[in-house]
Amino acid sequence: MASITAKYKLFFFTPLHALEPCKTAIFAAGAGRYPGGNYTECCWTVSGKGQFRPRDTANPHIGSVGTLEHTEEARVEAICFGEDVAREAVAALKSAHPYEEPSYGVVKLEDF
């Protein structure tokens, strides 16, 4: 029986001005690439509105300490084949993302 590579879904939120640099970074780390190489740079993106209030010790990229901020953001989802790819994509995202604390998640997918 052939071994099946574990699949993960990486999702993250980013301000619109940082969308392309963040996608470029995760794709360079291998996210959004299907085995065999027939499809690369695959993702799903949707726009929405995020909000946050920076506290006293924060160093916000957007907004001011103590003020509730609303900003247009994008949610991006991309598949990662292999835990190593998922981890490298997260590291790349953290390096490219402008926020002090990027909002992201990684979910292990089951193959039915």
UniProtKB/TrEMBL annotation:
It comes from the Eukaryota. It comes from Glarea lozoyensis (strain ATCC 20868 / MF5171). SUPFAM superfamilies: NIF3 (NGG1p interacting factor 3)-like. InterPro entries: DUF34/NIF3_sf, N-reg_PII/ATP_PRibTrfase_C. This is ATP phosphoribosyltransferase. Gene3D superfamilies: 3.30.70.120.
